[in-house]
Amino acid sequence: MEPIKTEIVVVGGGPGGYAAAFYAADKGKKVILVERDKRLGGVCLQCGCIPSKALLHATELIRETEISNQRGIVFGQPKVNLEKLRGWKNSIVEKLAQGLAGLCEKRGVEFLQGRGHFEDSQSLRVETSKGQKFISYEKAIIAVGSRPALPPAFDLGNKRVMTSTEALELEEIPKNLLVVGGGYIGMELGTVYATLGSSVVVTEALPSILTGVDSDLARPVMRYAEKAFKEVRLNAKVAKMATSGKQIKVTLSANGKQKEENYDRVLVSVGRLPNCKDLGLENTKAVLDDKGFIQVNAQMQTADDAIYAIGDVVGGALLAHKASKEARVAVESILGEASGMENVVIPAVVFTDPEVAWCGLTETEAKQKGVQVQVARFPWAASGRAMTLDRPDGLTKLMIDPESERVLGVGIVGSRAGELISEGVLAVEMGATARDIAESVHPHPTLSETLMEAAEVFYGYPTHTFTQKKRTPLP
Amino acid sequence: MDVRVPRLAEGVESATVANILVAPGDRIEKDQVILELETEKAVGPIPSPASGQVAKIHVKPGDEVNVGQALITLAQEGAVIEKAPAPEKKSPPAGEQKIRPAASPQLQKVPAGEPSGADQYRYQSAAGAPPPASPSVRKIARELGIDLNRVKGSERGGRITIADLKNYVEQLQHGTAPASAPEPAAKPAAPAIDFSRWGPVQKKPLSSIRRTIGQRMYESWSTIPHVTQLEDVDITHVGNLRKEYGPSLAKKDKHLTLTPFVLKAVVAALKKYPIFNSSLDESTGEVVFKNYFHIGVAVDTEAGLIVPVLRDVDKKNLADLAQELNELVERTRKRKVSLDELQGGSFTISNQGGIGGGHFTPIINKPEVAVLGIGRSALKPVVKDGKIEARAVLPIALSYDHRVMDGADAVRFITQLIATLENFPERELKG
To answer: Is the pLDDT assigned to residue B180 strictly greater than 50?
Structure first.
């Protein structure tokens, strides 16, 4: 059979893969995009970022009505039509997927549904519903992503043990839900289910939730969880799970003691694994690192000259926007342009209640690396806008190099932190100083002022809070 | 011991490895040529300063090397050396892939390694942060292959702006502090066009000499306001002189072409109008008049244009000049001309007549202020003493720097030149 010839083949249609395919096509390349699912969008769109944010938004209203009652506008008990909620969520996914399909077609990117398998460094076999197809390419970009980890001990073949994928399907609202793993996925989905009425217990093996997040940024989330969840158990491990009638019997160990508990459902959110298996990488020169991610250089090129890899499959932060940026770097490198994934600021957002967002250097990292930074904090209790939103439980902080006054990192916890962090990204990318932020007028009353005021804290003259620390005269 | 790049010539700090003539394991003698370096406009052989066995070769053809850089390592007597291993093809590890600079004439050539003029500044951050610069500035630096750690930022917190980057590149290019007069902003790199969309293509990198020519021409063309004066010269008389004296000189291996006549006539005009034998010192605003007459002669070689210089043209007779010119052209075509012979010209002649050509607009060979272009002579009807005669007419073109002289000067100069050629003194051939 004559192979299909193309300049670039992209394997995987998530936010890394489709971004790469579209960009390469826009740059005049002939591109084939291979995706095993019938829809584009990958985990992000099908069972990740988008559906989880839809559910978080929908349930936020319930949380809001509860607070509203204290403000004198009283709502009755909300009725949840799970089918309708699921339908609305799915319609968003469908619309966005159709949009991607249209964008693909308009660009002349050939979409091929099937599983890709490398035969050698220059050819890919694709298993489609209509049999095998062979693609002979000049360059390949692997963007096959990752999947939720489900340790074998928890894999009972019982639908009551869910990963994020199943949890987002929202089959039912379990009375009791155990969330194994207090990372961002567990905390976000725990919030959704708790708001919908589940009694949620989170267990985390480590001493804190949201590991890696600065403790002052994680604290408001912990405070919320303590209130909204039945329990957050730290330093606790799940030893065993077993099916017990219509429930799951879970053996937990904490402080050296073991106890058994029954849950209607369990969400396992203990991390994600790269989808490197069955790709035929052994037929190429590409190599994996010790954690099973594909090794690439700053140009996103694997050890095989003809093959590039981007997104979750190469490790680092498993985030859609990281994948999309890497897509650009890979395509530019293939085109012979000067490009590289070096000193790129990748922001992170946790969509809990309140949201946590950060970029650049974190305070934790600075301590670990022994880097001298001055941290300027502005508590949202001093923000007029936060008060009017009834969300004073926030904090904006800047990690500043005391000598050059350059902003090295930004951390925010609070309502809409995910939207606010972009200013921080721009500041860090531009090499802005705290003075640059302090002297840029921010509109009043908005939450964005907290960035300006945090910068003013560094110099010692914030308007809306008082500090007795350093006062730097204006130059 | 290491064999290093020797001092090449005045003001020449880097070169490109053209050929490597030895392999690891080879036994070589003192003064044996080990490799050839392409510098400025010539290829120079690099002899070994000692005898020994080649232990390691540190460079490969196409590498840009700087004065003092190690080229090969010579082993002491008796040391055991492995034969040249098969070259290992390996994909570059993370972060080591060579970045190709995009075409950007103003900011093109950035010598690797230590710049002679730039200071030894290095960005330092206790936080281990990269030098502060916006993503767009970082992208341009990447395209040009510039390490931003070496660029001093002028903004708050040491932030590097596009202007800082430009200043740095100018420092590298000139080896001096940035000139006070701002130069026009760098043109953005032209977007890459994929020509293979329209048919088969082949790609070949610009040779080092081609890049040098391009850089020089761009520099001259974009900084000097050129005016070109076009004239015709009746060289029937010169032709007659060549017919009369040529055969006897040819027996002495002195081929009497048109160029020696033009050289002599040009020097006569330069003596009368010394402004054409000057240079403009842009940093001080002074005109430097030269009391010597070293004339550059453009030579068409396989690799591209090379301009060797004939020294003291005023002090040599026509026959000797003819012989010296032939030798120089011959050596230039074989790329055997030394770097010193490519420098110090005060005026340039570009004679296309051997190939053909009419009037054209030559580009001034900066820092000179004028250049004479010559086409091919042809018999043309000329009105002489009221009668039409067939005369040998030579198209000539004088480009000059309008900052230094005006049109009237050019007309005076070229009129003098024409007069000398049309009435070329026969005594010059008898000396």
So the answer is: no
Return mean pLDDT, chain A. 94
Q: Which of A468, A448, A470, A451 is nearest to A459 (CA)?
A: A470
* B237 is annotated as an active-site residue: no
> Each residue of B126-157: pLDDT tens digit?
788 889 998 888 988 888 888 899 899 988 88
Over residues B21-40, the mean pLDDT reads 80
Q: Looking up tokens 């030269």, which residue turns up? A: B290
Three-state secondary structure of A323-384: HHHHHHHHHHHHCCCCCCCCCCCCCEEECCCCEEEEEECCHHHHHHHCCCCEEEEEEHHHCH
Q: What is the ipTM of this complex?
A: 0.72
What pLDDT band is residue B17 in, cutting at 50, 70 and 90?
Answer: confident
Query: B65 or A142: whose pLDDT is higher?
Result: A142
Determine the residue type at B153.
G
Helix H segments across B86-230? 135-144, 162-174, 208-223
Q: Greater confidence, B19 or A327?
A: A327
B93 has a pLDDT exceeding 70: no
Nearest to B157 among A297, A342, A433 (CB): A433
Are A429 and B129 contacting, i.e. CB atoms less than 8 angstroms apart? no
Give chain A's contact residues with B (Cβ, < 8 Å): 28, 285, 295-299, 301-305, 333, 335-340, 342-343, 361, 366, 369, 371-373, 401, 403-406, 408, 429-433, 435-436
Report the distance separating Cα B404 and Cα B411, nearest Å.
Answer: 14
CA separation for the pair B76, A51 (Å, rounded)? 71
> What is the predicted pLDDT for the residue at A43?
95
Which tens digits make up the pLDDT trace of B200-250?
A: 888 887 877 788 888 889 889 999 999 999 999 999 999 999 999 888 888
Alpha-carbon distance B327 to B333, whole Å?
A: 10
What SS3 state is found at B398? strand
Give me the residues paired with residue A241 across strands: A250
d(CA A47, CA A169): 8
How many whole angstroms separate alpha carbon A188 and alpha carbon A50? 12
Measured between CA atoms, the residue of chain B closest to residue A366 is B127
The predicted structure's pLDDT at residue B11: 59
Non-local CB neighbours of A303 within 8 Å, separated by 6+ positions: A285, A286, A287, A295, B91
A contacts of B189 (beta carbons < 8 Å):
none
Q: Which of B97, B142, B160 to mutate to test the interface with A (most CBs of A within 10 A)?
A: B97
> What is the distance between the alpha carbons of residues A113 and A39, in angstroms, rounded to a whole number?
9
Of the candidates A42, A4, A2, the residue with the CA atom closest to the CA atom of residue A313: A42
Q: Could you give the C-alpha distances from A251 to A153, A201, A258, in angstroms and in order?
A: 11, 14, 7
Q: Give the pLDDT confidence score for residue B111 in this predicted structure.
A: 42
Q: Where are the alpha helices (H) located in B367-406, listed in sequence order?
A: none
